[in-house]
Amino acid sequence: MKREGSTMKIQVDGLQFGTGYNGVLGPRGVGKTRLLKKMAQVEEGTNGQTCYVSRAMDSFHELTIKEYLCYMAGTKAIPREDVTRKVNDSIELMYLNRWADRTIGELSTLMKSKALVAKALLSDSQVLLLDEVLAELSEQERMMIGYALGEAAKERVVVVASNLGDSLEGLLDTLCLLHPEKEAAHVSANTAYSWVEGKVWEYVAPKLPQAAEGRIVTAVKMLEDGVYVREIADFVPYEEVSQVTPTLTDAYLWWAGQR
User: Fold this and answer.
1) Which of 114, 117, 180, 254 is most buried by its number of CB atoms within 10 A?
2) What DSSP character marks residue 185?
3) 125 and 204 assigned to the same domain
4) Could you state, in chain order, the average pLDDT of each consecutive group of 10 residues for the chain (259 residues)?
5) CA distance 108 to 240
6) Which residues constitute the domain of residue 111?
7) What is the chain's percent helix, strand, coil content, to nearest 5?
8) 35 falls within a domain
9) 43 with 148, same domain?
10) Which residues form the ABC transporter domain (predicted)?
């Protein structure tokens, strides 16, 4: 990790992640976990300044949230006299007070994700690597956790790896796009949105649209009166159509379709 003034930078596989809110986006199996683990290995010698968190919690189902966080505090070499304060602070930051004495096995997916983020916030680690901790959450739930991470990202390197559809809309500073057949791209989130600004449409058609150059169908749903279609196109694809706000998934699919 290099520090330039108040900004920290990490370089892995030709990609550079700096202080702020960084996303890694791609489908399952594309290498997001490998990238985050490699970042953690690169930073191993930085006096515990890096925290890697995955969704693996199966071994802790019998522990309460508070017991789980106390155990994790011990693995992070937090001084014993600071453990109670650090654990309580993390519980409060993630609004887990009501669930602090519930066992991990009893928790909903949302509460488990909150507990994982609380674990990441326990220490003063300067690099937080969060591997798909927001998977299977609704957009509202992801944003709820996302805002808490956004506060941490003001002074740390925060990297959140997500599957397509699980990204943090409007919160990320940068975005790393991974694809099995393309070289990784690392751009500002604003740049990614600009790729598809004014190009995302929704409409109901009598039948599925035919594949055509410059058109990417991103969602289809059969309705009683036709077929709901969401697509990316440079032109108006249908007579009665609504232009909609693009998402990072739209930006990814547009990028993946470029030769």
Assistant:
1) 114
2) E
3) no
4) 65 91 95 94 67 87 95 87 94 94 94 94 90 91 91 92 92 96 96 97 91 88 94 91 96 93
5) 41
6) 9-193
7) 35, 30, 35
8) yes
9) yes
10) 23-133
